[in-house]
Amino acid sequence: MQPRCRMKLWSGRFTKESDQLTEDFNASISFDQRLYRQDIKGSIAHATMLAKQGIITQDDRNLIVQGLIEIARELEEGKLQFTVQAEDVHMNIETFLIARIGEVGKRLHTARSRNDQVALDARLYLLDEIKNIKELLLDLQQVLLNLAKGHIDTIMPGYTHMQKAQPVTLAHHLLAYFEMLRRDVGRFEDCAVRADSMPLGSGALAATGFNLDRNFVKDQLGFKEITRNSLDAVSDRDFMLEFCSASSILMMHLSRFSEEIILWSSEEFSFVELDDGFTTGSSIMPQKKNPDLAELVRGKTGRVYGDLMTLLTLMKSLPLAYNKDMQEDKEALFDCIDTVKKCLLVFAPMLQTARFKTERMARAARGGFTNATDLADYLVDKGLPFRDAHEVVGKAVLHCIGKGIALEEIPLEHYQGFCPLIDSDVYGYIDVAACVARRRIPGGPAPEEVNRAIEEAVQWIGRMKGVPAE
After folding, report:
1. What is the pLDDT of residue 20?
2. 36-52 vs 214-221: helix axis angle to the nearest 10?
3. Helices and strands in the chain: count of H runs, count of E runs
């Protein structure tokens, strides 16, 4: 079924039909049609409120609501098709309704503008998608926790400046990304707070003279509050900007993780092997096993940044109130949502099925003098000022480089030539496992502290998912 709209619902002011070029350029139905569920939901609440306030009759309200319910069902079943001639999702649905129930359908738009209508739909849609993204984030965090539980004692080198620095554990490294994602969850929750305001009743810009009950509509739709200024309500896109900003930070975190996965899966690192189901091959080089999914996540990060920049640029010089420029907001928002969801959906199983090469990680941790700081700490424990200890260890490292040996391979008599405070207990002190175990303060990589962090993280995820504590 097609909407019947040779002339527009707003055509009274005009003496001829729109040019086809105008129709094609002006229409947004190709992308805003995904808002139809929210649009119908908002229209049902609006019609119910109009009847409650005596602005339309209860019989008219019932006819409108029944018609909207039928339209929603037929859209879900693919029996209705949107058209460019009806411009956008709002006018398509209204045209369907008028064709279905006649003159009564024309009463639905009483005391409402497409300006406050689209602001409502976008907020409803985004609130739903924030919930979906939060669930995907929690699922990924659960994967990280499960992996961390199995690698509490897996020692690996930690890096600064991409140079080996100090030994840590794989569990500790994974929990660093857990914390990044925890902040992401908080940002999306915070974004939802400001999106949770009901704009309907703001009209085109100056509200309406009809005696609307905006709080009734708010309660019908499950919003926390109503917007406080009609000019702001129809022209505000801060909630979209905030969402895209939070999404950009999330994608930055995923991109950082992707970069490490890409490095770790290389022959040079060989810390991880990705599952065949989450890698691809080469059309010319038979030996290749490429981390394409991680590379795509890294690449799509720039796409989400672009969505944010689109919205920032779009809004930067718009006067109050609504301007047609703002029609361009939805494609950027929808692309941001879709991209983030796709990346989260693929990232969790890619990580879950990865095989970490623990022996290779341990060997790497024993190289590169990752225990040098601990040797300096050993000397401090013996009474040497840290700056003097730092110099002694630096000379010992230089000696090892010249000899091609590790710090733990220096004979005791040579050690005592660097500093007489060094005794035979130094070898146990600078063992990489001991180096890690010693760092047991809160936030450190020691197994006992990582276990505590995992337990706290498990409880936090339970609260986020609404699971009662055991």
Report:
1. 82
2. 140
3. 19, 6
- Report the sign of the C-alpha dihedral through residues 268, 273, 278, 280, in that order: positive
Q: What is the C-alpha separation between 249 and 136, in angstroms, rounded?
A: 16
Q: Looking at the DSSP assignment, which residues form a beta bridge with residue 164?
A: 159
**Beta-bridge partner residues of 280:** 290
Tell me, what amino acid is at 1? M
Question: pLDDT tens, 53-91?
Answer: 999 999 999 999 999 999 999 999 999 999 999 999 999
pLDDT band for 4, please (50, 70, 90 cuts): very low
Predicted confidence band of residue 201 (pLDDT cuts 50, 70, 90): very high
**Residue 406 · residue 400 · CB < 8 Å:** yes
Burial class (CB in 10 A: 0-12, 13-18, 19+), 406: middle
Q: Any alpha helices (H) in 7-57, and if so which ranges?
A: 20-26, 29-32, 36-52
**Residue (of 175, 160, 172) closest to 373 by Cα position:** 160
Which is nearest to 357 in space by CA: 272, 266, 274, 275? 272
Which is nearest to 105 in space by CA: 249, 230, 4? 4
List, by residue number, the catalytic residues: 161, 282
Distance CA 311, CA 238 (A): 9
> Residue 147 in 3-state DSSP?
helix
pLDDT tens-place string over residues 105-149:
999 999 999 999 999 999 999 999 999 999 999 999 999 999 999
418-461 pLDDT, tens digit per residue, is 999 999 999 999 999 999 999 999 999 999 999 999 999 999 99
**From the CB of residue 337, how many other CB atoms can be counted at a distance below 10 Å?**
23
Q: What are phi and psi of 63, to 5 degrees?
A: -65, -40
Cα–Cα dist 407/400, whole Å? 7
